[in-house]
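Researcher: Next sequence.
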Amino acid sequence: MAKKLGVAFLFVWLSAAVAGCGMFAAGGQEIEEKSKFEAGVKEPPIPTITIGNEPFQPALGAYSWGVENSSGTVTSTEVDIAPPPEQAKHMESIAVAGEDDLEIDFGSVHPPKPMDLHIWEDGKRRFVDGDMRLADYKGTGSVIVELYGEWHEGHASYVFVLEVR
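Model: Next structure:
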């Protein structure tokens, strides 16, 4: 009887120890849980981008997305699409002024973290550090912009083309 009680105690102690390991990172700091947004979001949300007073929606590019089902399983979708320079060939550019600000709104969905902007020039992707200054692209022709974001469910890229005047 004492042996069974000892085994039960060991099992309970090990279960508690293993469960506690997932809550703390090295150094005893609590790990921040990734927040999920509204149930039923089956694909990446499409943001509304506003430059000046002109709102528009970018084209959805490549993405990887997983949704947890009520059964506990996950339905995953992987979409591969042409790179932004190829997508841009079939898009109309949006005329904007060089002094306008760029705002990105994901509506009721939490914005992605991280959320990065990239400019495509000569077939190469360049990270835009900090705020995108449209004045830097004034009069240079069409500017291909890629927005990239990550959520708990996955990641997505969005493409739009600007004509900065």
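Model: The longest strand covers residues 154-164. Residues 1-32 form one domain.
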